[in-house]
Specification:
The structure is a homodimer. The first copy, chain A, is of the alpha/beta class. Chain A folds into two domains: about 170 residues, Peroxisomal Thiolase, Chain A, domain 1; about 160 residues, Peroxisomal Thiolase, Chain A, domain 1 (3-Layer(aba) Sandwich). Chain A is built from eleven helices and 15 strands. In chain A, the strands form two sheets. In chain A, strands 1, 2, 3, 4, 5, 6, 7, 9, 10, 11, 12, 14 and 15 form a 13-stranded mixed beta sheet that branches. Chain A has a two-stranded parallel ribbon with strand order 8-13. In chain A, helix 1 links the parallel strand 3 and strand 4. In chain A, helix 2 crosses helix 3 and helix 6 packs parallel to helix 7. The interface between A and B is large, with 60 and 60 residues.
């Protein structure tokens, strides 16, 4: 059962009943490193290319999530997946042998939330009994695709973010569990003219504002009503801009606001500049850190909003600004 | 109201109430050239890059579809869009100023059917009142991204297909109209090991088989029960393979089977080798040729199945085989 309130949709009957997160070595050494299901110390994952490594990372997270769910693979009736790579190669290669109906997504770093929006709606509408939502990224495949070849050793600007090597997978079902997908707000594209692909936080913050304000208006709630409001990967620069913009909207974000890109690394110690980014950032923090806490009731009422910068290397080279999007998922302890 | 039967989903309450197709010069000169809403004789569409031209092509089709729908843009509550370009730049740039919640898709040439699957389900579940589904491609942006720079003048193999310069847009609503989305079957990824990116028809045919056989089994119907069964862009090679495979399954396809890639060009006259391909092939043939005929009752019972080859230039260079997918939409005159 789904009810529309403005742009937001209230869902009756969508739950997350299994989840898993697998990350790379650097993420394993970060402040929440011990929260992940698995840390891959070999960043190649034994593969002959970074793209294959990324795909293998996701496959491991999928296998873990499915195994923890106690639902056989053949009973999954939909998989929502996407990533940052051209033609979403990472997720396609990871899921191609599974034999599950597949909905390929492109939402850049917003993919995990985009998938949860669709999976939540499909569970609530009785379309799916067991759906998987996946997102992953790999520092090495993203860096060489979006910026420079790794061996070039290019300098990183202070506003740049570090693409997370990580994958998150969640299983969504209409059967009640301790984690409820209560509301979703699909994002609109917002483009304020930022052209610097090394400052994605600034490009994405206005999209986060747009979705967050819509959600608060639709639900007649305010930031203080939530245990935690967490954006996907605005990083230091973007999350400060979001705080500033929300202040101006008269809905200031307090100590209950943070960003996955600020949680996954120790910025003083790990040389990641403005923080983490990539599809795998929000996905692995959600599935490694947040969902266990919602499941056990440490967190009861969480707004998870993954943000995506929808530029391509070609659009950047052609001088175009960065369209951004933020999808919101309201998760509660049930 | 949605009912699951096996892999397929029967929808009660999803209709297409507006549609538009805009194509390039070559498509306008083809056998169904006079079916499209608009033919752009200038392939650049007055833009400074092929990617911007592709985006402009889609924007024109969106504007036409919205205008024909008599529904103001602000009343659209979701847009499902995607294309072939890295990071789906074409559709992102086309929809970024519309202010409509956006679900970005990646399904390669299956995108139009993938979007209709989701839009059909959302309409049937009461999630959306007015949704847009879009897909587009441009020969020049696709050719240089997936194969060779245009100026290189590379030889094309006999099995290669010609990427359609075209865009198709459909508006989906729960309000009854003459075109009903009756059933959908989301596709599974099938990969039979074909590695030749110049023979996508062969790579995609097994995916089409998988979805089509599932649909016939789920609905207890046979090919003869339909006025028309049309695949997205298997072209000459792929559609012959599909005929052969269906014959072996004991469900032979008769004269009521064809392929959008065979309809859009005159292969004798237009030098397109195995036929048309690209997201815009199935999308423009659907919105230019098929939907008007379903609307006026010339066609009453149609299976539209867009097929996608989910390879990337990187996966091809790394010698990986081509994972393929086919999403099916059952359209009826209501």
């Amino acid at each position: 059962m789904i009810t529309r309130i403005g742009r937001s949709l209230t869902i009756d009957g969508a739950y997350i009943h299994s989840y898993a997160a697998v990350v790379g070595k650097k993420e394993g050494e970060g402040p929440i490193g011990n929260e992940f299901d698995k840390i891959c110390d070999d960043t190649t994952l034994g593969q002959s290319s970074w793209e294959k490594a990324e795909s293998t990372l996701l496959k491991q997270a999928i296998d873990l999530c499915v195994s923890k769910s106690n639902v056989p693979v053949k009973d999954y009736d939909m998989i929502f997946c996407g990533d940052l790579l051209d033609q979403c190669m990472g997720s396609t290669m990871a899921v191609r042998s599974m034999g599950i109906p597949t909905i390929g997504l492109y939402g850049a770093c917003s993919t995990m939330a985009e998938g949860l929006v669709l999976a939540g709606l499909c569970a609530g509408a009785g379309v799916t009994n067991h759906a998987l939502v996946t997102a992953e990224s790999h520092f090495c495949s993203a860096e060489r695709q979006f910026r420079f070849p790794l061996g070039y050793g290019g300098q990183r600007t202070p506003t740049s973010q570090w693409t997370v090597t990580g994958a998150g997978v969640a299983a969504v079902s209409p059967t009640a569990s301790a984690i409820c997908i209560k509301d979703v707000t699909p994002g609109r594209i917002v483009d304020m003219g930022v052209t610097d692909a090394n400052n994605m936080g600034a490009a994405m913050a206005p999209a986060a504002l747009d979705t967050l304000v819509s959600f608060f208006t639709d639900t007649a709630t305010a930031p203080d009503d939530y245990d935690l409001i967490i954006t996907g990967d605005l990083g230091q620069v973007g999350s400060e801009i979001l705080r500033d913009l929300m202040q101006r909207e008269g809905k200031p974000l307090g100590a209950n606001y943070t960003d996955c890109g600020l949680m996954i690394y120790d910025r003083d110690r790990q040389d990641v500049h403005a923080g983490g980014s990539g599809c795998g950032c929000a996905a692995s923090v959600l599935c490694g850190y947040l969902l266990p806490r919602i499941e056990n009731g440490t967190l009861n009422n969480v707004l998870f909003m993954a943000t995506g910068a929808l530029m391509s290397p070609t659009s950047s080279q052609q001088g175009m600004s960065i369209p951004s999007i933020a999808h919101l998922v309201h998760l509660t302890h049930a």
